[in-house]
Amino acid sequence: MRFCRFGDNRLGLVEGANVRDVTTAFEVIPRQGYPFPTHDLFIENLDEVAARAREIASSAPSIPLAGLKFLSPVANPSKVVGAPINYQKHLDEVKSNAELHHNNEQHFAAIHKMGLFLKASSSLVGPGEGIALRKLDRRNDHEVELAAIIGKRCDRVSKEDALKYVAGYAIGLDLTIRGPEERSLRKSSDTYTVLGPWMVTADEIPNPGQLDLKIAVNGEIRQNSNTRYMILGVPELIEFASAFYTLNPGDIIVTGTPEGVSPIEPGDTIVATIEKIGSMEVKVRAA
C-alpha cells in the first residue's frame, strides 16, 4: 500500500495516477491526552488504519495526483537518524574535495568510525512544501537517500530481525549546508529533510538493498546509483542505531547518499526518484 498526506492533513491511498481520500481511517487511532506521545500515532497504528482504509477505499473520493500538495507521510517522528557517507564512491569524492570536508577528518571518516547523527525533527517537510535555503553565502547541497520508516518500538535489535521493525519506505532528501560545524547543525535547518511523496509499506519492498535511485536538478541528472552500494544496508543501520537508542514508531532513518552531490540554488527544481517508490518534485527557494 502507498499512503500519502496531502493538503490540510488529508490521508490518501495512492492508486495509480489517483489518490483515494481515506482520511476518516484516522478515526481508528485511539484518542490521546496530555502529555501526548513523542512518536507518530499513524505509524504506530498503521495496521489498523490500513485495514480501515481498505474497507472504505472503494467509496472514498478519488483525486488526481497531479497538483496535490504532498506533506511528509510521517508527521511526528521522535528523531531523524542520518547515515553519513554510506556509499564508498561518495566517501571517495568527499575525501578528494576540500569544499566537502573542510579539512575536518570527522567529515570524511568511514561510517563505522564516525557513527550516525541526528537531524532535528523540525527540519522535516513534504515535497509540496519545498526547500527554503539558508546561508546563501555558502554551498548548499542535495543528497538523495532511501528513507526507512520505523513501524514499532525497537531497542538493541539484530540485523537479522531488523526489517521486521520497518513500516515502510519513502524518498528522502538530506540537504546540507557546507561548513566546518557539526553535521547535525548544518543539516537541521527548517526544510532540510524532505520526505515523500508517500510511504510504500514494507511488504512491497522486501529487499531495500537493491533499488535504483537518482536525482535531477533542472532536468540534469546529478546522482544515479543503487542501494546495493551502501556500506551499511538498512538492517545494519537499524542494528547500529538501536544499539545506542530506542527507535520509535515513525522514526526515520535516511540511509546515506551516493556520489554526485552538488550545489542547489533558489529557483531550482529537484526531481528525486527511487525504484518501487516513485518520484517527487521539490521546488527550491530562499528562506
CATH topology of the largest domain: Fumarylacetoacetate hydrolase, domain 2
Secondary-structure element order, N to C: EEEHHEEEHHHEEEEEEEHEEEHEEE
The assembly state of the depicted protein chains is single chain
Mean pLDDT: 94
Low-confidence stretches: none
CATH class of the largest domain: Alpha Beta
Distance between the termini: 35 Å
Counting DSSP E segments of at least 2 residues, the number of strands comes to 19
Structural class: alpha+beta
Tally of helical segments: 7
What's the name of the CATH homologous superfamily of the largest domain? Fumarylacetoacetase-like, C-terminal domain
| C-alpha geometry | globular
Instruction: Summarize the biggest pleated sheet.
Output: 12 strands, mixed
**Percentage of residues in helical conformation:** 10-25%
Radius of gyration, rounded? Answer: 18 Å
Number of domain units: 2
Strand content: 25-35%
Name given to the CATH architecture of the largest domain: Alpha-Beta Complex
How would you describe what is shown here?
The structure is a single chain. The mean pLDDT is 94. 44% of the residues are buried. The chain has 2 domains: 2-71, no CATH class; 80-286, Fumarylacetoacetase-like, C-terminal domain (Fumarylacetoacetate hydrolase, domain 2, Alpha-Beta Complex), CATH 3.90.850.10. Helices cover 15% and strands 32% of the residues. The chain is globular and about 55 Å long. The longest helix has 11 residues, at 46-56. It is an alpha+beta fold.
